[in-house]
Amino acid sequence: MTHPLYELFKDEILVKKIQERLPYLFQLAEIESSRAGKTGMEAGSVREKIIIALLIYKFGEENVDTNLPITSPEADVRLFSFPISIKTITGNQFSGVKLIWTVDPQKAQEFQQNYEPSCDMILIQINWQNKGGLYFIPLNCQIEIFQKLGRENYIKLPKPGTNPRGVEISRGALINLINHPISKYIPIEWQRQSININPYKRWVELWKED
């Protein structure tokens, strides 16, 4: 069965809309998740919702399942029968894509020994005032690169003695993944816009309701 996400990349009108609108929507996510000029961790959850909303817009709400059990830690959403992980990176270096968030070195080691790719991936490279993109990296592509490189080269453990935030896909593995012939890519120019928005306004309006 052909993965339905390939249809998104064939939809020229939607591809153009993604190129034009995703930077604006992600900028809104940053504004709503910022305090004193610093973007908070919650921006990641808002970005995830934006991508899930894109899937609902394209494929219909009845075909997008967001109620995944906690026993599926890698998948964020299910499109038809396909579990999908949504990940973002910032900047022009392909590094920092988290597989698991943990500060426990033992848990990180256990994760490396037991991990195998289990779902398709949507990866968004945010690169403000420059070029990035939206990538689709199918599961069979991940399995191929994982087996080719081996788990020690595919998975990057945090350095001992540091204050790590998680276990990552190695930069080498990620470059192999995005350049794989079956992976897909939509180039995006990440230009900021002048946005005047009060992140508290809608909540104030809800308080005003009877």
Structural notes for this entry:
- This protein has 210 residues and is an alpha+beta fold.
- It has one domain: ECO RV Endonuclease, Chain A (3-Layer(aba) Sandwich).
- The chain has 8 helices and 11 strands.
- The chain has helices spanning 5-10, 12-32, 43-59, 105-114, 139-149, 151-154, 171-178, 201-208, and strands at 34-35, 38-39, 64-65, 77-79, 82-90, 98-100, 120-126, 131-137, 155-156, 167-169, 184-189.
- It has a 6-stranded mixed sheet with strand order 3-4-5-7-8-11.
- It is globular.
- It starts with a helix and ends with a helix.
Please outline the helices and strands:
Elements: H1 5-10, H2 12-32, E1 34-35, E2 38-39, H3 43-59, E3 64-65, E4 77-79, E5 82-90, E6 98-100, H4 105-114, E7 120-126, E8 131-137, H5 139-149, H6 151-154, E9 155-156, E10 167-169, H7 171-178, E11 184-189, H8 201-208
Parallel strand pairs: 5-7
Antiparallel strand pairs: 1-2, 3-4, 4-5, 6-10, 7-8, 8-11, 9-10
